Amino acid sequence: MSLDTAFAELTSLVQRAHTLGTVGELLGWDEQVNLPSGAAEQRAAQHAALAEAVHAAASERRIGELLVELQKPDGALSVDQQAVVAQARKDFDRATKLPAEFVREKAAQGSRGYHAWAKAKANDDFASYAPVLEKNLEFAKREAAYLGWGGREYDYMLDKHDPGLTAAAVDRLFGELKRELVPLVREITASPTAARAKTAAGKLRGFPVEGQRTFLREVTEKIGFDYGRGRIDVSLHPFCSGTGSDVRMTTRFKEDEPLDSLFSSIHETGHGLYEQGLPAAQLGTALGIHAGMAVHESQSRLWENQVARSRGFWRSFEPRFRALFPTQTAALNAEELYLAVNLVEPTLIRVDADEVTYNLHIILRFEMEKMLFTGELAVRDLPAAWREASREILGLEPANDRTGVLQDVHWSDGAFGYFPSYCLGNMLAAQLWYRAQELRPGLEAEFARGDFSWLLCWLREQVHAQGRRFDALELARRVTGAELSPKALVRYLRERYGALYLG
Ligand code: ZN
User: Fold this and answer.
1) Lowest mean pLDDT among 101-110, 219-228, 229-238
2) Mean pLDDT over residues 465-485, rounded?
3) Hey, which residues does 283 pair with through a beta bridge?
4) pLDDT over threshold 80, residue 75
5) How far is the CA of 327 from the centre of ligand 1 (A)?
6) SS3 1
7) 293-301 and 420-439 are packed helices; what angle lies between their axes, rounded to 10 degrees?
8) Are the C-beta atoms of 222 and 207 separated by less than 8 Å?
9) pLDDT at 103
10) Torsion angle, CA of 206/209/212/216, rounded to 10 degrees?
11) Catalytic residue among 268, 275, 304, 355
12) Which pLDDT tens digit goes with each residue over 410-424?
C-alpha cells in the first residue's frame, strides 16, 4: 500500500470518529437549550450509547495498523501529513491505552463529583466535597500514568487542553504577570474614576430582552459571524459548541445587566468565528481542529475585549445602542457609557470579574492546582490556602467557601489544568492585537466605520486556517514574531485602563 493510500484511509477513519463526536456535541447543546424537563434520563442513555460508538470508532484496530505503517522511520510524509499522523497517534493512544474499566469508573466519578460539588456549594460545606476532590486527583494521576506521563501529572493535565504547555512555562509567565498586575489593580481601584465607573454601570437598568436580542444579532453579524452556518440560542450559562458549518452559540439575557449579555455573546462569537474559519475539508484532523484552549480563548477574548471595549467599536455602535434603548441610556453621556463598558472592580467571583482582575483569579487557581499535584498542598488545607492567596492576590478574602474555593465547577469532574488557558488566551490576544495594528495602522478607525473585515481576514489566515499545525507557543512566535509572554497584555491593560483611570 502506498503512503498516500494509507494516509487517505487514516484520514477518513479519523474524520468518521470526529463526526460521531460532533453528534454528541449536538446532543449536549440540545440538552442545555431545548430539553424537556422529563427527558434527562433518556438523554443520558443517548449520551452513553453515543460515547461507546465514538470510543469504538476512535480505537478501531485499523487506525493502529495504519499508524504503524505511516510512522515508519523511512516514511516520506509531507509536513502537513506528519501533523495529522502525530495527532491521530495521540488520539488513538488516548482511546486505547486507558482501560475500559478506568474510563467507566472515571465517568461515573465525574458525574458524582458534579452533584457532590453542587450540593457542597449550596450548603457551603467543603468537608463533604473534599473526598470527591481527592478521588478526582487520584483519577487524574492514574490517567497520566496510563498515558506515559507518570511523574509529570500536572504537565499532562495542561497538555491535554493546550498541547505543548508545561507547568514550568506557565509558572514563569504567571509569575511575571502577577508582579505587574497586582500593583496595577491597586492603582486603578484607588482612583476616583473607579467610583464614577461603578455609578455609570449602575445606571444601565431595564433593557428589554427583545431589544438586546436585536442589538447583539446586529453586532455579531457585523463582526463576521455567519448565521448561515451557525445560530445563537439561550441557555443558563453561555457557551459555544459545534464546528465548521454548524456552530451553536448560546447567551443569556438579564434586563438589568445588558452589557453582560452583550459581552458574553461577543465572547462566544469569537469562539464561533474560529470554528467557522477552520478548513472545512480537513475537519476533525490536525489541519481542521483548533490549536488548543489557550488559542481558542485568544480568539474569544480578542473580540470581546480588545475589539468590543475599544473606542472605535463604540463610536460605531453607540448610536444604534441609544436608538434601541433611548430612555435607558439617557442618563449617561458617551464618556460615562464608555466607562461602564470598561468598569474595573475586584470581585471574589471569577465569572463576574472584569478583564483586568480576571487574570488574577486564574493565577490563584493555577497556584492551587499546581500545589495539589505536587503534594505541597493537601485537599483538606485548600480552603485556608485559597483564602490566604485570595487576600494576597485579589486583595479580597471570601467570608465563606461558596464564594471561595467552591465557586467553580471545573475540578468537580476532574478538569484540572484548564484554568490557565483563560489567562494564556488573554496574553495571546494582546499580542495579536498589537501585531494586527502594526500591520494595519488605523485599525480602530476602521472599527469606528463599522468595518471589522481586515481583522477577521487576518485571523482567518494566520490562526483559523492553521488548524492544529502549531501549538500556542509556536503560533505566538510565528504570527506575532515574539514569544508568548505577559508583556503585551500588561502594556494593553496599562494603555487602555491607565488612560481611563489614571490619566
Ligand atoms: Zn471562552
Assistant:
1) 101-110
2) 97
3) 288
4) no
5) 32
6) coil
7) 60
8) no
9) 87
10) 150
11) 268
12) 999 899 999 999 999
Contact between 239 and 268 under an 8 Å Cβ cutoff? The reply is yes
Q: Is 268 assigned a catalytic role?
A: yes
Helix-strand-coil split of the chain, %, nearest 5: 70, 5, 25
Question: Regarding the domain delimited by 167-502, which CATH topology (the fold level of the hierarchy) does it fall under?
Answer: Neurolysin; domain 3 (1.10.1370)
User: What are the residues facing 248 on neighbouring strands?
Assistant: 231, 241
pTM tops 0.90: yes
> Rounded to the nearest whole angstrom, what is the distance from the C-alpha of residue 408 to the centroid of ligand 1?
15
What is the C-alpha to C-alpha distance for residues 429 and 491, in angstroms, rounded to an integer?
A: 12
CB 294 within 8 A of CB 162: yes
Going by pLDDT thresholds of 50, 70 and 90, the confidence category of residue 111 is confident
Cα 60 to Cα 92: distance, rounded to the nearest angstrom: 8
Cα–ligand 1 centroid distance for 297 (angstroms)? 5
Q: Ligand 1 center to residue 68 CA distance, Å?
A: 37
- Which residues on neighbouring strands pair with residue 241, listed in sequence order? 248
- Tell me the per-residue pLDDT of 304-333, one tens digit each, with 9 for 90 and over: 999 999 999 999 999 999 999 999 999 999
Percent of the chain with pLDDT over 70: 100
Residue type, 243: T
DSSP H or E stretch at residue 423: helix 420-439
Is residue 42 exposed (0-12), middle (13-18) or buried (19+ Cβ within 10 Å)?
exposed
How many residues in the chain? 503
How is residue 308 written as a grid cell? 468590543
Tell how far the Cα of 34 is from the centroid of ligand 1, in angstroms.
22
The DSSP symbol for 351 reads: G
C-alpha cell at 412: 468537580
What is the domain partition of the chain in residue ranges? 3-135, 167-502
